Amino acid sequence: MLSGKRIILGVTGGIAAYKAAFLLREFQKAGAEVRVTMTPSATRFVGLETFASLSGHEVAVDIFPDQGESSDWTRHINWGEWADLFVIAPCTANTLAKIASGISDNMLTSTVLAARSPILICPTMDGEMYESPGVSRNLKIIQEQGYQVLEPESGYLASGLEGKGRLPEIEDILSKASEIIGSIKGPLEGKKVVVTAGPTREHIDPVRFISNPSSGKMGVAMAKAAQSLGADVTLIHGPLSIPKPDDIHSVSITSTAELFEAVKEYQHADVIIMAAAVSDFTPVDVHKNKVKKSVADSEIKLTKTQDILAWLGDHKREGQTLIGFAMETENLIENATSKLKKKNADFIIANSLTDEGAGFESDTNTVHLLGKNSSQKFQGPKKDIAIEILNTIFR
Ligand code: CTP
Question: Which residue of 16, 59, 66, 101 has the fewest C-beta atoms within 10 A of its own C-beta?
């Protein structure tokens, strides 16, 4: 349930702060990506470096970052937008009171206000404090405001006293987090999405073919992103150079003609994303046996393949969203805009082979999402871009 999800882990200044390091590891083991924000007093219990090295990301404490931290003072907004879930464990009485009152005096409390995701709060403190009228009132307030609360457990506390105030077991926090994530309806819930990915191969003879260096990374990232937003995804793919996802229904093809046949079977999907790098030409004659070089012609006669995206554009049904890609080496926006119109697509994701860190086999990309009247640039790992693009189109 947590696989591929983005979690902000908020750590406040209680003795259980050290347990948050184990919680972070468990989130990661479950496949989630985790970022950590700490209150200033939490850094008295566990060093920033512990969470920074475990999460592989800067740990945010103040809204106005100190030297060494990123200089981006709008991080609380960006993080709030980024996350699928925000878990505050442990949450002290002080932070609880701030959340109940809407105070935003550090990165953690500001991100609480900016978050678009559900927020799970694990209050952890001394038993007497937990039972105090102020804390009881604040807990009631935050629950009425829609925050999720996982009650502390009873047992021995750091004070040496016994009471209700211990951080729940890591597995209980994990299962509550999964339950919350599982109940979120993604913007593509109930939608059928077809994604094509990878290259096609146009055989000349059984051992030779015309193709391109597409790895399928961007298409697979789009398929996974669509699934994580709730879609029922079918991935139609050519020969991939990365493993195909086990948990996505997939159809394997080789040639453009096969891709066209497969796409036609799914032409009524709610969303079709043509990320495949489709060969534009195919040999007129395909030899049944390997052509011997002693008898081979030095020329291969080619004919154009079916433009599948253009065909889908011609047969587009009401309410269907058609997304194409455009791979260019010059005049990126101009050429991509003309493909958008010519192929009757709703969006074109345009990428230039000349951009650094972009293109066929790279893990990162730089793309422009072009709509009929809009344009937005995305840059970063292909898996992140894929989510951001789909969120931009469908949220
Ligand atoms: N496409 C397609 N069928 C083809 C060729 C391309 O469906 N025979 C789709 C691609 O999957 C992509 C979009 O059309 O979504 C644009 O592909 P691209 O290769 O950038 O452009 P082409 O249409 O092939 O035009 P050109 O080669 O002139 O750039």
Answer: 66
Residues 203 and 342 in one domain: yes
Q: How much is the pTM?
A: 0.76
> Which of 129, 153, 183 is the last residue before a domain boundary?
183
3-state secondary structure the chain: CCCCCEEEEEECCCCCHHHHHHHHHHHHHCCCEEEEEECHHHHHCCCHHHHHHHHCCCCECCCCCCCCCCCCCCHHHHHHHHCCEEEEEEECHHHHHHHHHCCCCCHHHHHHHHCCCCEEEEECCCHHHHHCHHHHHHHHHHHHCCCEECCCEEEECCCCCEEEEECCCHHHHHHHHHHHHHHCCCCCCCCEEEEEECECCEEEECCEEECCCCCCHHHHHHHHHHHHCCCEEEEEECCCCCCCCCCCEEEECCCHHHHHHHHHHCCCCCEEEECCECCCEEECCCCCCCCCCCCCCCCCCEEECCCHHHHHHHCCCCCCEEEEEEEECCCHHHHHHHHHHHCCCCEEEEEECCCCCCCCCCCEEEEEEECCCCEEEEEEEHHHHHHHHHHHHHC
Q: Please choose from 210, 278, 323 the residue to mutate so as to test ligand 1's pocket, defined by most ligand atoms within 8 A of CB.
A: 278
Q: Looking at the annotation, which residues are catalytic?
A: 212
Q: 10-48, pLDDT tens digit by residue? A: 999 999 999 999 999 999 999 899 999 999 999 999 999
Residue nearest to atom 27 of ligand 1 (CA): 280
